[in-house]
Amino acid sequence: MQRAVAAAEQLAILALARADGLPAFAADGALSSWEVFGQQLVTGLSNGMIIALIAIGYTMVYGIVELINFAHGDLCMLGAFFALTAVGALGMSEWGGAGGAVGLVSLLVATAFFCGALNWSINRLAYRPLRKASKLSLLVSAIGASFILVNLGLFWGGMPMDVFAGGNSSAAPKAFPALVEPEPAAHLGDVIVSRPDVLVLLVTVPLMGALTWLVRFTKLGKAMRAVAQNPTAAALMGIDVERVIGATFFIGGSLGGFATVVYSIYNQTVSFQMGYRMGMDAFIAAVLGGIGNLPGAVLGGLLIGVVRAMSDQYIETRWTNAVVFGILILILVFRPSGLLGAKLREKV
Amino acid sequence: MSAAAPRRIRLTPWAGLAALAAVPFIDALLPGGLRLEDPMSEVFIYAILALGLNVLTGFTGLLNLGVAAFAAIGAYAFAIATCEIYPFQLGFWPALGVTVAAGAIAGFALGAPTLRVRGDYLAIVTLGFGEIVKDVLVNLDTITKGTQGINPLPPPSFLGTPLEARGQYWLLLAFVTVTFVGVRALERSRVGRAWISIREDELASRAMGIRPDHAKMLAFATCAALAALAGALMVSRLSSSGEPGNYDFQVSILALCIIIVGGIGSVRGTLVGAIVMVGMNSIVLVKLSELVGSPDAPGAALDEAQGLAKVGVFLRTWAQNVLVNPTNWKFLLFGLALVLMMVFRPQGILPPRPLHEAPPEGGEEGA
Amino acid sequence: MTAILEARDVTMRFGGLVANERVSLSVRPGEIFAVIGPNGAGKTTLFNAITGIYEPTEGEVLFEGRPIRREWGMSDRVKGLAVGLVSAAVAVLALNASALWQGAIVDRYVYGEAFPWGEALDSVPRTLRESGFWLTWFAAAVGFAVARLGFGAIWKAQRRTPDLVARAGVARTFQNIRLFGEMNLVENVLVGMDQHFRSGYWSCLLRPPGFWRERERMRRRAFDLLKFVDLADNAADAARSLPYGHQRRLEIARALATRPRLILLDEPAAGMNPAESADLMKLIRRIRESGVTVVLIEHDMKVVMGISDRIAVLQYGRKIAEGTPDEIRNDPVCIAAYLGTEDLG
Hints:
The structure holds three protein chains of three kinds. Chain A is mainly alpha-helical. Chain A has helices at residues 2-19, 34-65, 72-90, 97-127, 135-157, 195-217, 219-229, 231-236, 241-267, 274-289, 294-315, 317-334; strands at 174-175, 184-188, 191-194, 269-270. In chain A, the strands form two sheets. A two-stranded antiparallel ribbon of chain A has the order 1-4. In chain A, strands 2-3 form a two-stranded antiparallel ribbon. Chain B has a single domain (36-292), classed as ABC transporter involved in vitamin B12 uptake, BtuC, CATH 1.10.3470. In chain B, 66% of the residues lie in helices and 1% in strands. Chain B has helices at 11-29, 37-59, 67-82, 92-111, 119-139, 141-144, 165-187, 190-200, 202-207, 212-238, 249-262, 267-292, 307-323, 330-344; strands spanning 157-158, 161-162. In chain B, a hairpin with a 2-residue loop joins strand 1 (157-158) and strand 2 (161-162). The interface between B and C is large, with 50 and 70 residues.
């Protein structure tokens, strides 16, 4: 089976490589090399886990207020600036050993809190007054909030601090210090699992577990599911709907906060435009899995991460976006509600 | 029975049209910095784009976040059809025909496979389509010249004569007027009624015998054809296709904001929205930053300052870096405008007026 | 006499929930047929299965002796093939776009000279041959397969849709009124008349004289329908602003506008006062007199017993009885089903 998939992939790759007029595909052993494939798989899965964490923020909010929270990616971008500022102000890149580890955990938690609080405030200011308005108005408000956050990111990047290169060009991408050195941590055959990969795993998996526990077994989780199903009925049962929605925004935002720190460490760059890319990937992941569905978001995130990595390696980086979107459109044509999404059945 | 339904003639639209047509004459009296001809031309082009989007998103209720892709297809179809670096070299008008046809085909091509995809899922599909078209245009650089763009392109012409700036302004005004009248005609006919009934309640309209797939395809094609027309007019005016990055998500969002700020589903509102949003985007901010001029280089005094003074220097340097330049505030103002608009007037500036189908006069005679 | 509507062993299952189990009905042309039963008995589900909103899990629905569904005919086969071939061609061309363009245009075009169109066309097959046999065929096969499968998937999802059923001559109203709230009464009725318009897209855009004539004719007809349901005075009001009972009558007018031969009314008297119900009974009789067969779901026993020719009783998704109002009134099974909940009048 795997062999057949690989063969099909090889053909597809050949096909796509031709599409932009490459003279011939240079099959310099790259394709047959399982190590390269494995390495890309690790990178893809790591990125996929980060995307999944952000996608959960989209999907939670969508599940409860049916809003594509356009500002979510840009929220994560501001989280990255927050983290970078903290790293710069405290000189954290110099800390080593146990201090470094404690510092990293504190950074993760602080950024998560920052993003959660920011998301909560955005909900309060830009979405809550529109609870009775049409879904489209809510979406436009989210787009507006996204613009505001992008602009705040632009301002933030102009801060005259060393980490921002003195703020000489606020729009330029900033380098994020390698708090976790990209050194090998483990070898699986010839495939290297780096320390940032391990960091991704250590951060995302427990968080997803905790979230599952929260949604399944706690009172708040039960209230969230109730509000998602029927806000009116939930309110009649004595649930403070607005509080639950606020909590959802906080939790979704803080997951984005965790994700953005890991993302910045993993990719080592921060810019005020990164929110668009991050948000887009996560948004696609959420939709691919079936928006509103938590396991779907994780599945979608992993899929996007892996597809991206494979396309970068085997096709060409400049075609990757088109490949990702092409796959998304194809899947939606055959499964209009995403991979794990419930078939919509209208109440008549 | 009279052949034509009674039509009221209102003054406002005619007065508005006359005022817009007079702009070039008024401009002649104004100092250079205040002239409206150029910015208004941009408003007109965006108005055509937004009128197209209004058919799909406003009337039919299908959220399209990738309308810029249709504009890009139109722009490049026009550029390839007319530019002298390619052998086709069609005239302005035949090329416009090709462009509109290409747009409509692209609309069918996106609409047909996505008929079953609904709501937010459709939004992401259209968004993805926008990204794909942009990437393909960049990557197929043999054909599109990549980020370099295709130029030079012939200016708009009329009866074989190339038009000067003033003539172009009137031509664009004519295009907006014709588009406006056409979209309005569609809205007030069975086609528009079918679109709106799908938006209001797709299931009920199906149960009444409306074929949503058919109606949606028409909406897609109309939207795409108008967007392509807007794209072609834009590149013809600029004499270059520009780079594919010019037709990105920002453009789609601007078009969406125009119809929502104007009043979603409202044809008049779309025009008002175009003036407000494009005006803010490319007139107010541009003029403001011209007034302020470029900011000074950041001071190097930060290291020397001590204590509280350091905070002051820090803030001053920061302000000099970014805050004083109005174009740096663009997204913030844009975003604030959208959020405040939605919070305080979610229906838009000129919401659609319902009830345009009056009962027939003298409906006494029985069937 | 053949039945105008026949349900044969219709079963509707949603996961583990069985909403209808082997329900069979046979409605004769020109009669008024009522479906009654306690809440949750599966009456509306049955209507939905009849009108194509749901596809019956088992069993079938016949209208005038035939099932209403698209058959995979010659034209679908041709369309599917065409869609597949076009996509295959697009896939091949897209895959070689740069090379084709290079070979046909860039290599041949010299500024200011006449362009050799014939040579350019000739270069297309040559370029495709050079790009490799397998690659070209692979792309063509993938393009064809994806498009053809997509066409099939969409076609399959559209086999029996509510619009097809409505166009075949079965109209309905909804239990939870589904009018187009922002439209006025005339427009609501005009939506129902949509399939009978002759002017198409271009005619609506360019508005030749025929368009205006048809528009006037249709509006008059819509107005007449409003008079038929006694709503002519409110013709210019928004549907949303109507009182409840009037909205139910407007839904009936809108359904009649499709010119059905069979109309399904889902609780038409719900929320009406006795005087309104009495008017409604007269209206339903007039609909029947105009040659339209009526099937209705109703809880108001006065209405049901007063106008129905025959009645079917559903309980827990099964049909437990069928007969004339007198038979149902005296049926011990029905009395047991309704005991303590409602009086059978």
